[in-house]
TrEMBL record:
Pfam families: Aldedh (PF00171)
Active site residues of this protein: 216
Domain of life per record: Bacteria
Keyword NAD in record: yes
GO molecular-function term, one example from the UniProt record: coniferyl-aldehyde dehydrogenase [NAD(P)+] activity
Name this protein carries in UniProt: Aldehyde dehydrogenase
Keyword Cell cycle: no
Residue ranges of every copy of the Aldehyde dehydrogenase domain listed in the record: 13-443
InterPro entries (alphabetical): Ald_DH/histidinol_DH, Ald_DH_C, Ald_DH_CS_GLU, Ald_DH_N, Aldehyde_DH_dom, Aldehyde_DH_NAD(P)
Keywords noted in UniProt: NAD, Oxidoreductase
Length: 475
């Protein structure tokens, strides 16, 4: 779509929002219900589109993450938005005015039109999950899905067009040039989910119109494995998180910090857990391929670089199974043992089924290592030592934390989801999404009667105002 056409579409959406005003709860619920219906009715088509885009993608994983994982947030918003919409009463300042009938409150007003730039790794979920908050807050939306998943992007365009007029929700497809122009549109809010490098361009483009942004990025999310952790349970959960979508998850565990004496035990437990989940990989429909050749080459380069610089590389794949000649771009779960910081795998977000495992002597060393790097989107602690857990939680900063598992905090609709610094800004999910996409309008209603204290605030100033000022300047 040409830039001028995008501007015209945005103008139509803004005009419709102004003409119709803030939608009622009933209208918001109806829009959300339509989204739920689209997901249910198009389940098979979504599974097929994502399988085509990835070359091989688990249908069950798609149904779990992209479909059911989207219906949940939409239902939560549908069932709670009436309560979220209620004005929030606040105390007056000074409190004396409240005694005479003054009122202070916060009203939640739709921002207007929200731009949504969704990524390729979970293109359905990361379109619909933000929409739960966008629609609950009473906004309209323009969506730019990824060009790396073209079949899914075209399906999204067809789906939304079947249920929404363009003045409510519109999908714009196209390559990086379209994406850059989209980011520069004068939205009332823009949410981008993707990589940090692209986010800088998006934020720069949005700044030209002073558009507020929510950036959901990523980073190198660490796992701190405690000496008190159950290695078999921890390895099973870590490797499940690392192999889901072949590690192409912004919250995938990016490296493990393990006690030195537990390194061998963790490697063996990881090997067993992968063997149970994936007795085969090459032709296993449960194991997802890498989305594109350039990403496949990038991940393979990480492994080759680590091997060349002295790391031990452990491929967790069935004996005798050759993945060098295959129809799809599958990479076996791979551990990089004792990586050093000069290796690419420790410098960049991996976004694939490769997991560095680094030993530590004391938990203080592990904390220091995490804190020496950029703040990640997620942090994971495994262990039963309550004091140590609290030490890790208090001494590290990350977007969110899951204790004794990975990724799961993203599925909690009552918790805000977002990053910090390089891993993002702003947060959504549940009521936090409603707030993110709402304008929180402060409304103060003055008392009708012009009583003495109010008169004293106007010239000519006398002893009353002086007495009040003196009272305010005490410690």
């Amino acid at each position: 779509m040409e830039t001028s056409a995008m501007h015209a579409l945005l103008a139509r959406q803004k005009a419709a929002q102004l003409a119709e005003g803030a939608p009622s709860a009933e209208t918001r619920i109806a829009r959300i219900e339509r989204c739920i219906g689209l997901l249910i009715d198009n389940r098979k088509a979504i599974e097929e589109a994502l399988n085509a885009d990835f070359g091989s993608r688990s249908r069950e994983a798609t149904a779990f993450t992209d479909i059911a994982g989207s219906i949940g947030p939409l239902k939560h918003a549908r069932d709670n938005l009436r309560r979220w919409m209620r004005p929030e009463k606040r105390k007056t300042t000074p409190a004396l005015l409240g005694l005479f009938g003054a009122k202070a409150e916060v009203r939640f007003q739709p921002k207007g039109v929200v731009g949504v730039i969704s990524p390729w790794n979970f293109p359905v979920n990361l379109t619909f999950a933000p929409l739960a908050g966008v629609l609950a807050a009473g906004n309209r939306a323009m969506i730019k899905p990824s060009e790396l998943t073209p079949a899914t992007s075209e399906l999204l365009k067809t789906m939304f067009a079947s249920a929404f007029p363009e003045e409510e929700i519109a999908v714009i497809t196209g390559g990086p040039d379209v994406g850059q122009a989209f980011a520069g549109l004068p939205f009332d809010h823009l949410i981008f989910t993707g990589g940090t490098a692209i986010a800088k361009h998006v934020m720069r483009a949005a700044s030209e119109n002073l558009v507020p942004v929510t950036l959901e990025l990523g980073g190198k999310s660490p796992v701190i494995l405690s000496k008190s952790a159950d290695l078999d349970v921890a390895a099973a959960r870590i490797m499940n998180g690392k192999t889901l979508n072949a590690g192409q998850i912004c919250l995938a565990p990016d490296y493990v910090l393990a006690p030195r004496e537990n390194m061998a035990g963790f490697v063996e437990a990881a090997r067993k857990s992968v063997a149970r989940m994936f007795p085969t990989i090459r032709d296993n429909p449960d194991y997802t391929a890498i989305v594109a050749q350039r990403h496949y080459d990038r991940i393979q380069d990480y492994v080759a670089d680590a091997r060349a610089k002295g790391a031990t590389v452990v491929e967790l794949k069935p004996d005798g199974e050759d993945l060098t000649q295959q129809e799809h771009r599958k990479i076996a779960p791979t551990l990089i043992l004792e990586p050093t910081d000069d290796m690419k795998v420790m410098q960049e977000e991996i976004f694939g089924p490769v997991l560095p495992v680094k030993s530590y002597v004391s938990v203080d060393d592990a904390i220091a290592y995490v804190n020496a790097k950029e703040r990640p989107l997620g942090l994971y602690y495994f262990g039963d030592d309550a004091a140590e857990r609290e030490k890790v939680l208090g001494a590290t900063t990350s977007g969110g934390v899951t204790v004794n598992d990975v990724v799961f905090h993203v599925a909690q609709e009552e918790l805000p989801f977002g990053g910090v610094g390089p891993s993002g800004m702003g947060s959504y999910h549940g009521r936090d999404g409603f707030l993110e996409f709402s304008h929180r309008k402060a409304v103060y209603t003055q008392i009708r009667k012009d009583i003495g204290p109010l008169k004293q605030l106007r010239p000519p100033f006398g002893p009353g105002i002086r007495k009040y000022l003196d009272s305010q300047m005490r410690g």
